[in-house]
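Entry 14. Ran structure prediction on the chain below.
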Amino acid sequence: MDTKWREKAQTWLTNPKLDPQLRIELEKMDDKAQEDAFYTDLQFGTGGMRGIVGVGTNRMNIYTIRRANVGFSKYLLNRYPNGLHRGVVIAYDNRHYSQEFALESAKVLASYGIKVYLFSSLRPTPELSFAVRYLNAIGGIVITASHNPPQYNGYKIYDHNGCQLVPELADKVIGYVEECEDVFGIEVISEEEAKNKGLLVYIDEEIDQAYLKQVKTIQLNPNLDKSSLKIVFTPLHGTSIRLVQQLLPECGYTNFYVVESQCIPDPNFSTVKSPNPEDGSAFELAIQLGKAKDADILMATDPDADRVGLAVKNNEGEYTLLTGNQTGALLIHYILTQRKQQGTLPKNGVVFNTIVTSDFGGHIARTFGLEVQSTLTGFKFIGEKAEEIRSQGKEFVFGYEESYGYLIADFVRDKDSIQSVLMCAEMAAYYKLQGKSLLDVLNELYETYGYYYESLVNINLVGIEGLQKIDKILSHYRDNPPKVVNNVDVKVIEDYLISKRYEDGKISDLTLPKSNVLKYILTDGSWFVLRPSGTEPKLKIYIGVKGNSLTDSKTKNEKIKQYILERIDKIGG
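Output, structure tokens:
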């Protein structure tokens, strides 16, 4: 039996440098809790490093933060030896210890002679991405756990393009991190010393205004009459409120209401079960205010403001929550229609989505003559491609993920809810002048392009046993691939771990980075994907179909879901 975790826990407990509060927490832990806190080190996933705040190597605390920053510092010293004066930008959200972890990150980088631009208060993740390029910095850091539960925090790192580090680069950082074995031996200079040496500079309003000025340029119909559109907005206690409250009124959206109780940067997210706009319950207070104001649309951003969810008033006066795939399809259709009419739609334009995104939006984009490229899940892959296509003479037109992340203009290289809020508002105002809601337009798109329907199943599997169960499920599907699902033959198997595609007895190579993901495509175009979450302890199952009607699509989808879950139940373990 592996007891290395016990040795690690004892090392921490006996070290005189251990923070007193963390020592008390460790002393109170039983064996099971200690094992979970020390059996591994926090790993970088699709959204960087993310974990529960607390004591241990598998937790977010000042020691794991320092260790991560030692790795990032060494990576930067190696990659930009003559660029340290250009600096690294650091932002943080409203979570527990976010400000402390941000300052700790700054002090570690400064200790290595790397200049730091630290936001003086909470800022959205997309603004960080913008700021990296605006300041010509060599990298960026955001302290956030996005939409995870309150006990989590996290750490995301960015390159000089304002794009999250892709696996090839993140692996180099991880290599340096793993060389740092003694977290208590990391020496950091003080905040005062860093400031005196010019290695720590606080930033705020100048970046806000430069970013908002750029966001306003995405408008396609800035002179549209927006006076009749009623919007309710909630930041779900997160970082977007200040910018959105300035942006929308300045762009003419005067009937704009906020959920006041959720504008407070509460790290406990006291008014919601989950601070995730994908979760319908996050809209409860927005719906109440929406009904009181007779709002046309409701919008909610997640805590670090890179995702946005929409709910639209239907004919019965209730609110229908749109999926990320539906919002993405609506945005693609609106943007491409307007740009075509205005003569600004590029012939060499590219729309990006991911391998777990519906083909609904891709189908629309292709009818406009645009190229559609799919990446792995994680917006860093879209950000990477946005830079790559420039050298190919192609133009970024739109990028999105099914998980409520959209990017309209690539002056940001991450998903951007601030841009998305503005474009969704414009889209809703445009169609309202035609007497249509976004639901009306969505139904028109279904009738034109087909009835696409997707679902996501999350299987929560926590701790060591959870990881083992996820591995067992994926191994089972990999070793025993299904041949028939819901009486429909499996036509294609894509295994991203070994970069192989199997179709009609032929094997070809997949060009995307390796990832423990399996995708199955059926002969009728239906598909499903098994993928471990990169940010939470869960297995994600994505299912997509296209039917003759919405009812037909939902039935198909449900039958595939039943097949997958029944098979998983039989695996055991």
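The CA atoms of residues 350 and 397 lie 6 Å apart. Will compare against last week's run tomorrow.
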